[in-house]
Amino acid sequence: MKTVTIHTDGACKGNPGPGGYGVVMVSGKHRLELSGGFQRTTNNRMELLAAIVALEKLNTPCAVTLLSDSRYLIDAMTKGWLRGWKARGWVTASKQPVKNPDLWQRLEAAAAPHEITWKWLRGHAGHRENERCDVLAVAASVGPDRAVDAGFPE
């Protein structure tokens, strides 16, 4: 099984506001950077979308280490939140609708073929690849080709 290290970050100017995601994927000697921007979204949506886009880019099952500075993402995947939300019909333990169910469902599908180790790291702490993801995400959030985030409810 091929091993891949994925670094992700999301950015949003205002929350909600213009946003973007950045990804750095490394496998052996190969390195790929991905980014995308949206006209109006939230930081949490961009954090999720970064992970989704990276995992969807993999065309065979891989052993993945995914690093993110988003507790929202990492805790949902490591503490069983996603399983609980799904089991309760996309309702939180406090009986509130889960935010971003479209992206959680997409993330679950993208993650399914892979063996993933989810790791949190402190953002803006000098981690080279996380800093690069931040640069990519911020640049995408202000870029001219920002898409409409169709899943973002106004």
Automatic annotation (TrEMBL):
<dbReference type="InterPro" id="IPR036397">
    <property type="entry name" value="RNaseH_sf"/>
</dbReference>
<comment type="function">
    <text>Endonuclease that specifically degrades the RNA of RNA-DNA hybrids.</text>
</comment>
<protein>
    <recommendedName>
        <fullName>Ribonuclease H</fullName>
        <ecNumber>3.1.26.4</ecNumber>
    </recommendedName>
</protein>
<keyword id="KW-0479">Metal-binding</keyword>
<keyword id="KW-0378">Hydrolase</keyword>
<feature type="binding site">
    <location>
        <position position="9"/>
    </location>
    <ligand>
        <name>Mg(2+) 2</name>
    </ligand>
</feature>
<keyword id="KW-0540">Nuclease</keyword>
<dbReference type="Pfam" id="PF00075">
    <property type="entry name" value="RNase_H"/>
</dbReference>
<keyword id="KW-0255">Endonuclease</keyword>
<feature type="binding site">
    <location>
        <position position="47"/>
    </location>
    <ligand>
        <name>Mg(2+) 1</name>
    </ligand>
</feature>
<feature type="domain" description="RNase H type-1">
    <location>
        <begin position="1"/>
        <end position="142"/>
    </location>
</feature>
<keyword id="KW-0460">Magnesium</keyword>
<dbReference type="InterPro" id="IPR022892">
    <property type="entry name" value="RNaseHI"/>
</dbReference>
<dbReference type="InterPro" id="IPR002156">
    <property type="entry name" value="RNaseH_domain"/>
</dbReference>
<keyword id="KW-0963">Cytoplasm</keyword>
<dbReference type="InterPro" id="IPR050092">
    <property type="entry name" value="RNase_H"/>
</dbReference>
<comment type="subunit">
    <text>Monomer.</text>
</comment>
<feature type="binding site">
    <location>
        <position position="69"/>
    </location>
    <ligand>
        <name>Mg(2+) 1</name>
    </ligand>
</feature>
<feature type="binding site">
    <location>
        <position position="9"/>
    </location>
    <ligand>
        <name>Mg(2+) 1</name>
    </ligand>
</feature>
<comment type="similarity">
    <text>Belongs to the RNase H family.</text>
</comment>
<dbReference type="InterPro" id="IPR012337">
    <property type="entry name" value="RNaseH-like_sf"/>
</dbReference>
<feature type="binding site">
    <location>
        <position position="134"/>
    </location>
    <ligand>
        <name>Mg(2+) 2</name>
    </ligand>
</feature>
